[in-house]
Amino acid sequence: MADKVFVVGVGMTAFGRSPDRSLRSLGREATLNALRDAGVGPRDVGVLVCGTARSGMLQGRESGVGQLVGWELGINQIPVYNVKNYCASGSTSFDVARLAVASGEHDVALAIGLEKLTARAGKGATLTSDGMEIEGDLGFSPPAYFGMLARRHMEQYGTTREQMAMVTVKNRRFSAHNPYTQYKDQVTVDEVLAAKPIAEPLTLLDCCPTTDGAAAAVLVSERVLDRLRVRARAVKVEASVLRTGIYEQLKDMTTFELDVRSSRLAYENAGIGPEDVDVAEVHDAFTIAEITHYEDLGLCAKGEGGQFVESGASDLGGKVAVSTSGGLLTRGHPLGATGLAQVHEIVMQLRGEAGERQVDGAKVGLTHVAGGFMENDIATSAVALLSR
């Protein structure tokens, strides 16, 4: 039987444009914050897992980012794993760290995710998924894809542009109370609709920004909770699922079959249903993406995502509060750091430490990241469920 795994410390940097900061300094800050939050030292760490999506290509550091960050903190002579898995790189580092603890091989694992996108080689060029350069030259990019998805969702289910804009308005309202977010100014539905066009029908305010940042988490086994005196900070990892797609040309682009499968497996493994989730962080890189994820993750029925946000069901006091950190749309999306920034928010919520964006009585939280594209399917999906 797998050992129980707990998150006992989380940390991150402020997300935003940090042209003068290095990967090293971003990773150091986030990791120190996580260790301090847990109340453990660098020498307590038995294994380190580091996730970056594009930093090797864009920052001239193809290998060893985890060793680089560990060296900064005096973490050495332990296993270090560097993982790259599209936008799910941070979620992958979290899952590998969880596996290392659940296996009984290690009692303390450190998961790190980081990315630096605002100062990079090829700045201004489209960031396409690895292996899709030809498609990129022909016009494929994430905004183009989600623009088409939005049009199809509007046609098929009656979703409106106003409902999409409400996602940004909601998430900006949360973001104003999160010290780590890139954007804190409030916007209206009309301002979202009138913003610079990006990919019809999406405007600039329907899309996540380019961002730098890092996040980290400390995971431990149940047997060391008391020895390390971290039980009071512990949040249980009920399930963590990472799956790849079937890579087929799917006919219905308004749903991501892989997200449906991975979330159902996570619910099954945890013995928790979507109706039990109090707070969720989803891959809301675009407003229509959050609406689609409501549906695929089982938070509402298929086709009802637009009505879900309009009714307030995804806001504080609603059925399940979604993107309380501000989400990718306003917190920012430094690819490799995103999954662990989501863990940071859920841990804060379950501890009751989220301040003015706190979900009252939150007991169960969900994180979700979808990464990459292959053959009109997403390449990987990561879903985790945590409880307090």
What does this structure look like?
There is one protein chain. Strand 5 (197-199) and strand 6 form a beta hairpin. Helix 1 crosses helix 3, helix 4 crosses helix 13 (338-351) and helix 7 (161-175) packs across helix 10 (287-296). This protein has a ten-stranded mixed sheet with strand order 3-2-4-7-1-8-12-11-9-10, with helices on both faces. Strands 5-6 form a two-stranded antiparallel sheet. The chain is 35% helix and 20% strand. The chain folds into two domains: 5-120 and 211-236, Peroxisomal Thiolase, Chain A, domain 1; 134-208 and 238-387, Thiolase/Chalcone synthase (Peroxisomal Thiolase, Chain A, domain 1), CATH 3.40.47. It is built from 13 helices and twelve strands. It is α/β, with parallel strands linked by helices and 388 residues long. The protein is globular, with a radius of gyration of 19 Å.
